[in-house]
Amino acid sequence: MASSSPPSSSANQNTITNPSNLRPTTYDTWCGVAHGCTKKLGLKICGFLQRNNSLEDKSRIVSSFKERQSSKNLLVCENIETESRFRRTETDFSNLYARDLLPAKNGEEPTMQFLLEVVDILMNYVRKTFDRSTKVLDFHHPHQLLEGIEGFNLELSDNPESLEQILVDCRDTLKYGVRTGHPRFFNQLSTGLDMIGLAGEWLTSTANTNMFTYEIAPVFVLMEQITLRKMREIIGWNGKDGDGIFSPGGAISNMYSIMAARYKYFPDVKTKGMAAVPKLIIFTSEHSHYSMKKAGAALGFGTENVILIKCNERGKIIPADLEAKIIESKQKGHVPLYVNATAGTTVYGAFDPIDEIADICEKYNLWLHVDAAWGGGLLMSRRHRHKLNGIERADSVTWNPHKMMGVLLQCSAILLREKVII
């Protein structure tokens, strides 16, 4: 049983009455308090401590306070300098032109003032975008905009425009455009204006590079690789052998998937063209995106060889009809190549039964693509992910982060389960 006897008197002396054990912590604490106070009150605290401590301690406390106060004053001066540097001043932009901005000699101040004006224009637009009392669109007919209203002019001048005119054009461009981030904007399948995405757009535009090679864009190239790998993992492809690329939009991503499928089964097409392959057939939902037929035309399949599969009353592919049309194509001597399952159709928002379609593709050795341009964002949802059950069995997936994930337009990815096919 633990002893309940009181501690010894020597222990009490060491822990309670010996001030030397408390001084370092006490001094540091009070110095911190003094630092956090105004100069006058801080000096009073130091004076109080000086009356109760040795000369050495007094000197240490006062010098510590002065050092911290000096650092604080320096920081304030730096902040004032920064604020003055980024402060808008009255500037006559009517006599300034692009040639007066950086990298022109003495161009830093005009550049700063011009960009601050642009940011002000953008911030006013952002505020109005989220204001429910404003219009989604200040509508005008095309001829009105082309003819010029209220000084708005789309014609290209043969002479340089002043920075003042460029700022006016910036305001008018936003004034007569559609506020896609407005709470009452319900057209298209994008998700409005995201502030982090906006900052990212500013950053990438400032970097002003492409992504041809690592040499020209080392950070962006690695970011793309890591992001695409993460997207493949979310799909359910846990291996490291997958591939992918960001593209200009979902239509191009879908077209890339057909090209990959054709090259996978008929690699000679790369050098010999469509003359080296039999008549290839593509299968897709009757409610699928129009990009499927466009890809069939652009890639030389022919729109007649893009076969539409019937859907049920909820807009989903009927697997039995898919299998029947695959058999029918084979009986005609054609070669079924590719099946597109849609995860989120444009009109109905329907999700095709991917698992059942995957069974058919495996049975007849067809490439399975999932067009999840719209619905891919649900892979991030614990509640709704089940709508894409079976997507991990696909050979390729189109996924547009700009549709449900807050990424600004355009951002589409084509993701492949196998590497070195694109």
UniProtKB/TrEMBL annotation:
One of its GO terms (cellular component) is presynaptic active zone. Coiled coil: none annotated. One of its GO terms (molecular function) is pyridoxal phosphate binding. The modification N6-(pyridoxal phosphate)lysine is found at residue 403. Keywords: Decarboxylase, Lyase, Neurotransmitter biosynthesis, Phosphoprotein, Pyridoxal phosphate. GO terms for biological process: gamma-aminobutyric acid biosynthetic process. Gene3D superfamilies: 3.90.1150.170, Type I PLP-dependent aspartate aminotransferase-like (Major domain). Residues 1-10 have a biased composition (Low complexity). It catalyses: L-glutamate + H(+) = 4-aminobutanoate + CO2. It comes from the Eukaryota. Its EC number is 4.1.1.15. Catalyzes the synthesis of the inhibitory neurotransmitter gamma-aminobutyric acid (GABA) with pyridoxal 5'-phosphate as cofactor. Belongs to the group II decarboxylase family. Homodimer. This is Glutamate decarboxylase 1.
